[in-house]
Design brief:
Strand order of the largest sheet: 1-2
Largest sheet: 2 strands, antiparallel
Helix content: 40-55%
Strand content: 5-15%
Number of helices: 13
Distance between the termini: 114 Å
Number of domains: 2
Order of helices and strands: HEHHEHEHHEEEHHHHHHEEH
């Protein structure tokens, strides 16, 4: 009888311990740390283990116990299902809610639109301003990165020109490589089929260099294939491209009027001094400019100058260019007089 009573006491103790542990575990996973609604930023890097995520949540004061979170993840089969990203959690979320959001991948996404014609400096400034990646890290990595294009047997060094202009959704504080990935994937998706279909005689890299010049020079749609034709014609005649945009690429800030000093800058990007292509693209062109580089107009033009209305006047010889420059100067004088009379 005494032995039976001892066993009953022992079983009751075990049962009480189980109930106590269950009560404790239930409190840990179902009762939030606080009722405060403030948001706490949590970054889950790619490849993070369940233990690492639990420790980060505990360190941020979002859960009471990293151990209980690991147990919950294990019991629910969510250990390997949590997704990398940047999250905003509140101390008012319980462990179940936090785990649910991690499994669903409900991370913060920052909308960033990269305009056609932005160069690496401009893209880096935009991404830095949006809180996606630091300007310096992005620039350094983009200039060193290599883009492998085995389907056309090319490997590109440096990503200027190959980050496709589009709208993207990024997480805060990403690595440069994580930012590059969707942009270069979009480039491959949009551009490679066009390039392969066109069967151009030039490499893709040279097509993108040419497209970047067109992108920076053309202001209206119909001028793009005409400007591309001018550059093709000049290349065939071994004439310098004399593209103002390549000089502007060398300057620290955008300028409206180039000076004689600017045109004498000693650089391979100076297409007034050096014939042929500059060393690389000067911007990230959009599809219209890339199509213009692949399918230039069939015209004899060698020169163009602004017409004052957003477009350009084209000519096949220098006499025609001088005439068009005279017309542009007349437009500038008329505009100046009009502004002065107001």
């Amino acid at each position: 009888m005494k032995r039976f009573q001892l066993w009953m006491a022992f079983l009751l103790l075990i049962l009480f311990s189980i109930l106590l542990a269950a009560s404790y575990f239930a409190r840990e996973i179902f009762v939030p740390v606080s009722l405060k609604k403030n948001k706490v930023l949590v970054v889950v890097p790619p490849g993070s283990s369940c233990a690492q995520i639990a420790d980060e949540l505990s360190h941020k004061g979002l859960i009471r116990s990293a151990f209980s979170f690991r147990l919950l993840s294990r019991f629910t089969g969510a250990q390997s299902k949590m997704k990398a990203g940047t999250y905003r959690f509140s101390p008012s979320y319980n462990e179940v809610e936090i785990l649910r959001r991690l499994v669903l991948g409900k991370s913060i996404l920052i909308k960033v639109t990269i305009p056609e014609g932005f160069d690496l400096r401009q893209i880096s400034e935009l991404l830095n301003k949006k809180g996606v990646v630091s300007k310096g890290a992005f620039l350094a990595a983009a200039r060193k990165a290599r883009l492998h294009l085995p389907q056309i047997h090319e490997t590109i060094s440096g990503l200027e020109g190959f980050l496709f202009p589009n709208t993207y959704f990024f997480s805060p504080r990403m690595t440069p490589q994580e930012v590059f990935k969707p942009m270069t994937q979009e480039f491959k998706k949009q551009v490679l089929p066009l390039y392969e279909k066109a069967h151009p005689s030039m490499s893709l890299r040279k097509i993108i260099i040419l497209a970047s010049l067109v992108e920076k020079e053309a202001k209206i749609e119909k001028d793009r294939p005409l400007i591309a034709a001018v550059y093709y014609n000049r290349l065939r005649k071994k004439m310098p491209l004399q593209c103002d945009a390549t000089i502007e690429y060398l300057l620290p800030e955008e300028t409206r009027h180039l000076t004689g000093k600017d045109l004498s800058i000693k650089s391979l990007y100076n297409t007034y001094l050096h014939p042929g292509f500059p060393p690389g693209p000067i911007a990230n062109p959009g599809l219209p400019s890339i199509k213009a580089a692949l399918y230039p107009a069939h015209v004899p033009y060698l020169y163009y100058v602004a017409n004052g209305k957003g477009g350009h006047r084209f000519s096949a010889n220098y006499a025609g260019q001088l005439h068009n420059i005279h017309l542009y100067d007349d437009w500038l004088r008329a505009r100046s007089q009009k502004i002065g009379s107001q």
